[in-house]
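Page 47, continued from p. 46.
Same chain as before, 435 aa.
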Amino acid sequence: MSRKLTVGAALALALLMVAASIPLTMLYARSQQNKLIKDLPQLIEDFGALQEIQKKVGEEYYKDPAGDKVTIGMVRGYIAGLGDPRSRYLKAEEYKTYMDRLEGKTQELGIVLKYSPEVVGLVIDQVKAGSTAALNGLKPGDHITRAESGGLPLSIVAEIAPDKAEAEIKKFYAETTAAADTASIAVTITYKRDGIYQPPVNVMLGSAVSSISVDMKNAWQSSDKTVGYIAIHHFFKNTADQLEAAIKNLSERGALSYVLDVRGCSEGDLESVLKAIDLFSVVSRDGGVMATLQYKDGSTVQYPSSSKNIVSSLPGGRFVVLIDNNTSGVAELFAYDLRAYNANKIFLVGAPTKGVRTVQEPFELSVGGAALLTVGTVTPYLVAPGQAWSVAPNDSLPATDTLLSVIYQISGREQQLNRAIEILTMPREKAEAEF
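Result:
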């Protein structure tokens, strides 16, 4: 005999089936999540630990934590946990500074001041490489006696009381920054060097950061200045234009060969270094791809050359690139490609480079600031995507980051430069035979 369920019994059974299905559904969902989300149990445990730490800090820490500092510390700690020193969190002001530098902009003169009891005044402690101050010849130890902008004096006097020096330095920085934010104007600086007044210099504010330093060097064992020397400090958006202008200027001054010094160079972005490489590139049967960027999913982006080769149009047209253990990132790509594009014309001298082949990009955050993250690896001209590559010199000389004395480091750097000049001065056939 068939039995019928009462409405109440049917409802109770339905509720029981739903209740029984919940844990089964949760178990199934958990198993699927474990497949879709790597290490989900560990992530849940770590998140629980974070919540517990936050609770304990709120209950037990001896004073109220500064919320913004804790948040920034957590964000930085997350990125630091990647184990990649080139990935980092940038606060809003740090992100602005980072982007300004990539654009080749600066909001400073490029000098760091300090008080000197010897002159009872302010002297230059540091001159930043590639800054407009450096280009105007200012050096550490110069005694700044007066500064004016737009005909109005700034907070610099020839003599100052020691207890007022710090405040005056801060005021001077604030004044020059304010001037840089309003217009590209110059600060006229009057200074003494070794107690002797020098001609005043006009240092531009808000002007482009110079990525390079330029000089003429004597040929090997000769008094003839026929070797152009260019130190490249970083690869920013204006570097390629500055480099091309410098090479042409040195050629007009009588340079027959050139030293490109990227020792210690690491800062810059991929787009900027490719513009610099393109000055030396040639289109070949493989398309002349300067670099290939490979992302973690295996996809690639290729950057072809436009064959803007200035080497063949220069008298002599011979180059040596100086590299060392502190040459890294974009500077390594620069050195590798220049030699690959110009075999028997461009040699590398120094020590093997650092071996950083990753590329970083900034990602602006909606809450302010940005995450600077490594997004992929780069391979140079004539190297297959993802293939290991390294930058070793044609002529190896002692590294410059040795733990020996500063004197040895200086002499080692000078030795590398002298060797570069020697190679450039020797007959082309001999250089080709050696390398």
